[in-house]
User: What shape does this take?
Amino acid sequence: MPKANAQSSRHRKPSTADLPAAVRSTARTHRVAKATELQLQRLTGCLHSLSSRHHDLTQGYAAHVGIAGIQYTILTTIRYLETKGDVFPVTVAEYLGLASAGVTKAIQHLTELGLVEKAGDLDDRRRTRLTVTHGGSILLDSLAPMQSNVNDVWLDCMNDEEFSIFLDLVERFIRSSDRALAMQDYLARDSDIVSF
Assistant: This one.
């Protein structure tokens, strides 16, 4: 009996049509960086190091006012997002890239502490609108002098123009990371990678 000539679908090269829409629709109008393996390893180490230091700064602010780090992050996020419009738990979760369950739990604690107020949405009673209370604002404002001094040191490695460029690069890197995650998930589904 003759052997089949067609490759197994498990081993076939992924078709462009099969790619996730987020990856497939990526415009290739700009030049793609060609980093070496050593440069990527250095970048990975730097990102972990930066993330760790940023986490420690956040924890420091939170500890100073007596709340958990995630609660501080969510409180400051609600206050920021309020300047853009109505804020809901899902808005906070999406903005921070966190699981809704964890965000909901932290919001409940902030509500019990009197730092966040929940109210029903007039347009959709299933949704809960969030606002930072007067007490929450006082708590955050009390940190302003410390944050100003810390930020002066934190950002003394760049000038205004460099900061604008850096912020733009970070935002672009987040978007490309989302596309990379979609690509990784797609390629891992039918891969021959050995797991232990």
Notes: The beta strands are 116-120, 128-132. Residues 6 and 80 are 56 Å apart (CA to CA).
